[in-house]
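The instructor's notes for this session suggest beginning with a concrete chain rather than abstract definitions. Hand out the sequence below and ask the class to guess, before any prediction is shown, which regions might be ordered.
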Amino acid sequence: MVVLGSAQPDSAPPAAFPETQATVAARARMVREQIAARGVKDPRVLEAMGRVPRHEFLPPGRRFQAYEDGPVSIGEGQTMSQPYVVAFMSAALELKPADQVLEIGTGSGYQAAVLAELASQVFTIETVEALAWRAETDLKRLGYGRVKVRVGDGYQGWPEAAPFDAVIVTCAPEQVPEALVKQLKVGGRMIIPVGPQNGAQKLLLLRKHKAGLETKVVMPVRFVPMVKGG
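After discussion, reveal the predicted structure:
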């Protein structure tokens, strides 16, 4: 595993895409019509979705799609999740300001930025090194210094930073990884899509109790597969 933040590849950081009245309005409309209208009511989540500049986490050629109602390609065969899905999963974790969160599947870094608006610290793991470097650069550029990015195997989690108050997985394993359950605090929550790449996937919400796991099937979903790496 490699924790980022030191020797980065020789490349210029991506240029910022200026915030305009149009992007502010598009983000407000996204929150109002795509998220709140579909039942996400947590005010902290709605405020976070309204603050984080989603367009800044997309490749320049995709920024015009930032506030559309759907996933967006970020390269390397990966996507940025639909805004509603990001908000729904974030709200399901019931995060408190002092919480420590583990994210599996950094992707663009956008979900990590939303989590950083809601929790104290975010640890995020990505298997694709190019995406991890890009996400870390964007997160730092936008002031999300409380997010730590690692290139590694999400199935193993981040044991030296555990236990976590919450775990969010943005790619789909066929079964819930045992290491992630072990790294969750008693009383902690995990939201994770589970199922085969070409079959039915279900979004699960898990709560860890002293006596075991409470599992709730939330809804059918379609995520990219979770792969081993690092």
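Then share the key points. Residues 56 and 148 are 18 Å apart (CA to CA). The radius of gyration is 16 Å.
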